[in-house]
Protein 1
Amino acid sequence: MNLATGGAALTAPALPDRSEVPDPGAGYAFDNHGPHAQEQHRCLASAYDPVTTARLAGTGVTAGWHCLEIGAGGGSIASWLAERTAPGGRVLATDLKPELIPSRPGLEVLRHDIVHDPLPEAGFDLVHARLVLTHIPEREAVLRRLWSALRPGGWLQLEEFDVEYAPVLLAPDRRAREAYQLFQTAKARALRAAGAEPAWGRSCAEAMRAAGFVEVDPVPQLVPWDAGSPGLQLQLHHTDHLREALFAQGMTADQLDEARAVMRHPGFRAASCVLYSVQGRKPE
Ligand SMILES: C[S@@+](CC[C@H](N)C(=O)[O-])C[C@H]1O[C@@H](n2cnc3c(N)ncnc32)[C@H](O)[C@@H]1O
């Protein structure tokens, strides 16, 4: 079964057969300094902040906690944590390119590569990262660093996608269905070519347990996507942000236009890809 297409084999048009072998020099697939970055972070916050903050609240995070937000992007979660931990709390927000993280009291911003730069072993109460480890081939080593950054009993919360289940439920016609499926397949390939593992969400809980975390609690989230929903807005955004990478996987401009049109069609409905929100604790 072709999971990337929700079980339906891709018929014409199909992508040319290209290698998905990651390019070691490719690095992170998106660009936090490019013209699309702000819109990407707006879409991410709109689609996923409610899920993320509801789960974070469940840890009991409150005034005085010390928190670490890795790959903070546009900083919406770091800002939420700073508000939540005041007074007396401290939030350190890191990113390769941290310029889009707003400054506010209680929030320290650090340009930092979680793979290579030293991380303070500061006894954080809570570490959070959303849609970051999926992009990092060295994700198991990163997990061990996050472990070291936590105090005994501290919480790690990760959110990661599995993009291999996102079937079309209603499409205006077969051609529209195929255009959307082609885009999703090309996107997964483009992410893999940049070193990401876009299905890592399904492995995240096992990886956390293997790293020594206890009380590991994975919660999958799947919602309907239709025109105007924040998740589909994010997909539309990807057609811009990843345009060249999608072409490199063999999509044509016409195919991309067709995919964009179907995502705006009022009769279109898909199941979202799965977002796994996974919590665990460092043993006391
Ligand atoms: C898909 S965005 C997610 C942003 C934010 N966590 C969110 O969910 O809204 C991934 C973020 O991870 C950052 N990132 C990628 N590789 C990184 C690394 N090695 N160290 C630190 N940040 C990294 C990127 O710059 C980007 O801001």
Protein 2
Amino acid sequence: MVKNTIAIDVLIKIIEDGGKVTTGIDVYNEQGILLLDKNVVVNIIKPLEVIKENGIVSIPFSSNTNSGVWDVNGNSIIFDKDGSFKTIEQKKHPALSGIEKRVSEIQELKKISTEKYSNAKDSIKKVLGEIKETGGDFDYNEVYSDVRDLVAFLTIEDNPFSYLTKEIFSYDDYLYNHSINVCAIGTAIVNSFNTTFSSFINSHLNTKQELNYSAVSTTDKKPEEAYKCFQKDEIEHICTGFFLHDIGKVMVKDEILNKPGKITPAEFDEIKRHSYDYGIKILEKNKLNNPFLTNTVQYHHAPLFRGQERGYPLDRAPNELPAYVKICQLSDIYDAMTSKRCYKEAFNQINVVTDIFRNYAKKDNIMQYILHSFVKSIGIYPAGSIVYLRNGQMGYVLESAGPLIIPFTDTQEKTLSDNANPLDLSEVGSDNVLQIDNRRSIKTPREVYDLLPSYLKPKKN
Ligand SMILES: [Fe+2]
Ligand SMILES: [Fe+2]
């Protein structure tokens, strides 16, 4: 295995021209956080920009069988030690071409995401176990470091756990899964919100228009002073807050938390205490007074808008809730509704997104931007999932943008013998029978394994 380095700007140019790269070596920043996994096929420039933002100008590269740099036609690009490179036409990308290549990329990302998810699960299990054992003590620095690693991965890949859908989840582990899911969804929203909102603010500051900033800040300062974009370290604390938002639930008895039937008002009052009472006490016991953490734990069930009936505690007005607390609550609602519990089935994720949008849009200034970021980052049709079309055909989602799907059954759910061409649904009329049937739930390849043609079947590990 020959190790080399390649200038990141050169790789960005190659990818901008339609090329691809797989490094074959994990890329870390100075703090030891993984920025790029050695097996990922990079075909967008975002991960490379993130690496560059970390002060890395050239990345290590190994010439093993899976790694490589390829141009838009799949030709290998070979680098010399002095940084010059040439294209070798004969040597093609070792992976399969076209659709099969994309399917294998999706499967690879699923594999990496599964590993990351399992590490995150070990981390939250450890925290909650420690709290239970010691009556409240846990090692915050260890969780913070685990979440930083997770956030680095979630920043490179857009909501990668949506690839896993719910196929690996067992609902006995609800609290662990819920903590990771809220962190993953929340991180995607914060990242997207930060970009969208900062450019929005900047454009308004440039034109000196007045805005209602009450939703952002509780101060009377001018917008220029009142608002600032979340910085990298702030995002890491915010996301740690998402990860730990329900720690107070450890103090609520399992019989109440997982009660299959209807809970009594007294039991509901006990559950409510997980946020403003038990959660805060655990943070105080560990001398953690970082506002990103305390606000999220204390207020993640507070009313999101004036007049909202449910919500607790009530000691903070909705317009005084920081944006990240609102993001935590939306992620919490989304995950709770799309998860199967001992007392309910999972709701269809598309209906959930529509419901959330309908309930919260236009309630205040900032909610619109949070919801916009939410819909953008949620990945309604994750690549690698299975959808039904209105005519009864089933389709494999190749890209969530569009979405781009491959129909693989006929209208009677019999597997097609010929490979169909991918269909970009953004180009198909909204009332066409080839649009997705949103009344039917999205499935995973595992659930419909027997119906999949061989080129779409998940590989056995
Ligand atoms: Fe909660
Ligand atoms: Fe929660």
